[in-house]
Write a structure and sequence with these properties.
mainly beta; 1 helix; Neuraminidase; five-stranded mixed β-sheet; 297 residues
């Protein structure tokens, strides 16, 4: 039976147009996330209540802590190494074959340091997006294709399953993931329309029990599904467009959630003054430690 938890706590006034891609940096004990439309990378240290914003030259879909103290960032024009000390980006790879109207959107790193990410049509009309794996200085298509808005991917704690989200289809798919990075056929994990007909599955994260958490765009919260695809609980938020969750804090038992102002008219924004901000709540089941993204030459 579904458990509806209490509302999450408001922890940061970020005012993001499209807040996305939260990820916990264990070394710095901070949360990284992006505002895609405002072309900015954000750092938030909950303990110090410190918030920094770094502008970048193009739309940025995600950042991931990488080896050597830098971050790997997915910008519209390809992969970059971002240096928090200087606030600068250095291009390291392009994504071959991407249409001019596409951008990158959402990512994760597996236990071997491989980076998995998706692309999408920036206008959100064409099914031109697909998923990729970046490994050993190469970027290769792996996983589903022909998707308008990709989200995820997310990898299970054992590293043997990978989840891909097709947002407009209101569907999360799952595929076997080999230790060598080979991806098997993707099948439907859950149709979120079954439980939230007016919402769209957004970014996903997996906890230590292998349960999948998904943001709910126009769904006013985040939902948790069992490894079998059963809806276990929903945590409510006071804003409609909820994008993604990341486990953080010293024991990975604090869930941080990004949200967006995008798509809300003046009346909706007046009714949701915290839209675009960051929220948090405590979880019983923690996340699991993630590997650092590979360093690129």
């Amino acid at each position: 039976m579904i458990t509806v938890a209490g509302s999450a706590e408001h922890v940061l006034r970020a005012n993001c147009e499209l807040g996305e891609g939260p990820v916990w940096d264990a070394a710095r004990q901070c949360l990284w996330f992006v505002d895609i439309k405002r072309r900015s990378i954000h750092s938030f240290e909950p303990g110090a209540d410190l918030h920094e914003i770094f502008g970048v030259h193009d739309q940025v879909g995600w950042v991931l802590p990488a080896q050597g103290g830098k971050l790997l960032a997915g910008l519209r024009d390809g992969l970059h190494l971002f240096d928090p000390a200087t606030g600068t980006c250095r291009a390291v790879a392009t994504v071959p074959g991407e249409p001019a109207g596409n951008r990158l959107n959402d990512a994760c790193v597996d236990r071997h340091g491989r980076v998995w990410f998706g692309s999408m049509d920036d206008a959100e009309t064409e099914a031109s997006g697909r998923f990729y794996c970046a490994h050993r200085n190469t970027v290769e298509p792996r996983g589903p294709s022909g998707i308008c808005i990709t989200n995820g991917p997310a990898v299970s704690p054992g590293g043997d399953r990978i989840y891909f989200t097709d947002t407009l289809a209101q569907a999360i798919q799952v595929a076997p993931l080999g230790d060598d990075g080979a991806v098997g056929p993707a099948t439907l994990f859950v149709s979120t329309a079954r439980d939230f007909p007016d919402a769209w599955a957004d970014g996903s994260a997996v906890d230590a029990e292998g349960c999948v958490w998904t943001g709910l765009w126009n769904g006013w919260g985040v939902a948790r599904y069992s490894p079998a695809g059963e809806l276990l609980e929903k945590v409510d938020l006071p804003v409609a467009n909820v994008t993604k969750l990341a486990f953080g804090g010293p024991h990975l038992k604090r869930a941080f959630v990004t949200t967006a102002r995008k798509g809300l008219d003046e009346a909706a924004l007046a009714a949701q003054p915290l839209a675009g901000d960051v929220f948090a709540f405590d979880v019983t089941v923690p996340g699991f430690a993630a590997a650092l993204a590979e360093v690129w030459a």
